[in-house]
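I am writing to request your help with a piece of structural work I have in hand. I am sending you one protein, given as its amino acid sequence and as whole-number tokens for its backbone shapes. Kindly check, if you would, that the fold set down in the tokens agrees with what the sequence suggests. You will find the record immediately after this paragraph:
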Amino acid sequence: MTTSSGLIWEDDVADPILSVSNIETYYGPIAGIRGISLDVEAGRIVTVLGANGAGKTTLLKTISGAMDPQKGTVVFEGREIQKQSPDRIMRAGISHVPEGREVFPFLTVHENLIMGAYTRKDKAGIQDDMALVYDYFPLLEARSRQHAGQLSGGEQQMLAISRAMMSRPRLMLLDEPSLGLSPILVGQIFEIIQRLNREQETTILLVEQNARMALSVADYGYVLEVGRIVMEDTCDRLREKEDIKEFYLGMKEAGARGKRRWKKKKTWR
């Protein structure tokens, strides 16, 4: 498959499940993202890296319908979905796990999970998926009657992902799943993300500041800076890029001792 920037994914033959083309989204007069184009192939994990304020959250909100783009198209499974309401986009097969988890704090864990399946009518299937969620996150089963607001940050992140699973999405949007979590919990969450992709064949678009972890689990990556895509490649290749090593992985070039990092400019090599 050839990406929107002309790069070719190795060993790919399928069309993308999601194709974002030249979208621009604004907060009043201020551009949040500017002319972004990217593709997500079915069955893959694709990551978008970037610092705070780069536009990662705006990108996911635009895809999920929480924000409308002023320009460009968002195509999911061959149909344009930009400017549709979030509930229609969710019914189409996209689930969004927002930054900060955003669970319903006064509902129990069980009730939060039921909310994730509110568009479904197949009671037997819902029960099967509830059992599947508890298989992935056994701690949630033990907390099923507890109010979500009483859970720890890591448990709330587990619940947010589980709630998204309950709608049986074909594409899951994950916004900073590692935010505020301990290294042990980060490892557990990313292991579950890989299992969801591998075992449930859920396609995942992951935005993340933890570049080392994101590049270790994803197949393909984009780098977003100040609302624009500045680099894209397979994650194996991105890990070898000098700018990625320096500015995202904290690895200095040989012979760079004594050079002040804040004086160095990105060249996106």
